[in-house]
Amino acid sequence: KRKGHNLALRLQKFRADVLRFWYDPQCPFTNNLAERDLHMMKVREKISGSFRTHEGAKTFATIRSVISSAKKQKLNTLDVLQNPSLLVI
């Protein structure tokens, strides 16, 4: 089947999920925030070639996660890095 036809079939099959933002105000229209969070990790990996250790990658991901959560909650990033208990989970 052609790409357009496959897309139409998926949109029909997952109609409730595709239009969830319409019925649920808590659901964002796009997933751009999640994509932006992943983008920084890929940029870091591309610039450096890779992370030197698995532990270094985990540490970087944790710090980026805390910074991203602070921004989404409109908190001061530096304050949250110094005291992560300020984040609402």
Descriptive notes:
- The chain has six helices and no strands.
- The protein has helices at residues 3-13, 15-18, 20-23, 32-48, 54-72, 77-82.
- It starts with a helix and ends in a 7-residue tail after the last helix.
Helix content: 55-70%
Rounded to the nearest angstrom, the radius of gyration is: 18 Å
H and E order:
HHHHHH
Number of helices: 6
Strand tally is 0
- Given the C-alpha coordinates, what overall shape results? flat
Termini, distance in Å? Answer: 44 Å
Question: What is the average of the pLDDT values?
Answer: 83
Characterize the main sheet. Answer: none
Helix/strand-derived category reads mainly alpha
Percent of residues in beta strands? under 5%
In terms of per-residue confidence, which ranges show pLDDT below 50 for 5 or more consecutive residues? none
List the helices and strands and how they pair.
Layout: H1 3-13, H2 15-18, H3 20-23, H4 32-48, H5 54-72, H6 77-82
Based on the model shown, name its key terms.
single chain; 89 residues; mainly alpha; 6 helices; 69% helix; 0% strand; flat
What can be said about this structure in brief?
This protein is mainly alpha-helical.
